[in-house]
Amino acid sequence: MVLTTAQLARDLNNLSDNFVIAVDEDGVEYVINSIGKACRHYDSPYDYCYALKLKKASSGCVKR
User: Fold this and answer.
1) CB 47 within 8 Å of CB 38
2) Which of 55, 8, 53, 12 is nearest to 31 (CA)?
3) pLDDT score of 6
4) To the nearest whole number, what is the mean pLDDT of the chain?
5) What is the per-residue burial (b if ≥16 Cβ within 10 Å, else e) of 11-42?
6) Most exposed among 19, 49, 50, 61, judged by the fewest C-beta atoms under 10 Å?
7) pTM for this model (two decimals)
8) Which of 52, 7, 3 is nearest to 30 (CA)?
9) How far apart are CA 24 and CA 28, in angstroms?
10) DSSP 3-64
């Protein structure tokens, strides 16, 4: 499980330069559209984490 941005950057840096997608537990593939922020607690708007914003392929499979 990746929990921090430093860990994510380190893991991605160790990979060769290639196409990256996100896959859920059902095998549906998503394109990583951007990186944004998401509130962790709605009563505190300044308590946020980073979020990968995904774009679902129409058929659930990214064409390569």
Assistant:
1) no
2) 55
3) 93
4) 84
5) eeeeeeeeeeeeeeeeeebbeeeeeeeeeeee
6) 19
7) 0.65
8) 52
9) 6
10) -SHHHHHHHHHTS-S---EEE-TT--EEEEEEEEEEEEETTEEEEEEEEEEEEE-TTSS---
